[in-house]
Each structure stands twice: as structure tokens, then as C-alpha cells.
TrEMBL record:
Residue ranges of coiled coil: none
Protein name per its UniProtKB record: GntR family transcriptional regulator
Annotated Pfam families: FCD, GntR
Source taxonomy: Bacteria, Pseudomonadati, Pseudomonadota, Betaproteobacteria, Burkholderiales
Residues that span the membrane, as ranges: none
Amino acid sequence: MQSTKVSTPAKMRAADIAYVAIENMIVTLQLKPGAPIVESELIDITGLGRTPLREALMRMSSNGLIVQLPRRGLIVKDIEAAEHVTLIETRRVIEKLIASSAARRATPQLRESILACGAQMVVAAHNGKLDEFMAADMALDHVVHEACRNPSAVAAVIPLIIKCRRFWYAYQHEGDMHEAARCHMLLAQGIADGNEEAAAKGADNLMDYLESYTRKVING
């Protein structure tokens, strides 16, 4: 595994920096499902100390990214496609709430940013640039979450989004970036227009796509 130090804003706590770094390694499969968590290796990779690292690992355990197994210690949780279907069922409910709330509450500046992120996803999909696509996806989530002004809903959905991203990296060969970008753009347009019904429908359509994609993986 490549050793790289983490570059992050100075105002972030060390434990938060560690969390972001390790989460990224898990989501992008640098730390593969079933891989052991070796503290000494993660300290070398992140350049952070044992205390913030352990705090980050405890948070990941509560979010279901890592698990403790007898005689094996901490390992990266396996990806279970069947379980992913129920995750999307739960995410659907929260995403519709977030989308309609964002459509109602977003400022003009946030509406512009939401549309811009959606457009960036479309361009990245057209160019076949997965990293750019995922970066625009994360940016869209961030600005929509800011716009909805519902921290409880955001806190509930973030662990689900993280698992969905890891699923995408694991099974990207079964995915369709163009369709995913189209669904995200419909969601972005509904929010930008201030149309709560269209925004909620956009979120529903996106979850429909993610569910069909997941079932394709299961049946494939």
C-alpha cells in the first residue's frame, strides 16, 4: 500500500483527519473487504499518532465499516450485496426528505452550486473519468446536505452513502455512469428549481437506479 501523508485543513481534529484518510482507503478499496486493520501501517500511511487513529477506528466500527472478529482483531467489513438492498430501502426514505428540504430551503447560491455539481457529473460520465465523477458526486452531496438544513437527516444518511460509494468502486464494471449522472442531474434540477415534488422524485429515481444496479450485481 502506498505511503502518503494526509493533506487536510489545519482546523480539523487529528482524529477527523485519520477518519477521512482511512475511510477513503476503505471506500476506494485500497483497504479491501476482509483486510486486517494494522495500526502500525496506518500510522505510517497517515502520519498520525495512535490515539487519533484509534478514535477514528472506533467511529468506523460504529458506522459499520470495520468489524471486530474473535482471534482476528479488526478487519474491513465485507460487502454483502443482499444487505445492500435493504440499505438502499433505508436511504430512499432519508434522501427524499433531504431533497425536498433542500428544494425548499436552499439559497440562490447553493442552488447554482447544486446545478454545477450535477453538470460536472454528466461531463465526467461522458469522458469516462471515474475519479472526477466520484469527486463531483461527493461535492453534490455536500452542498445538498448544507442546503437541506436538517443535520439529523444528514447524520443518518452519510454512513449509507459511504457504503454505497464503496459498493460502486467494488462493482463499477456493472454500473452505468451515464445513467447515474442523469439521475443525479434530475435531482439537482428539482432542487435548483425549488420544486419539492420534483426533487423528491429525483431522489426516488436515483434510488431506483441504485437498487436495479445492486440487483444486477446479485443476479450476475
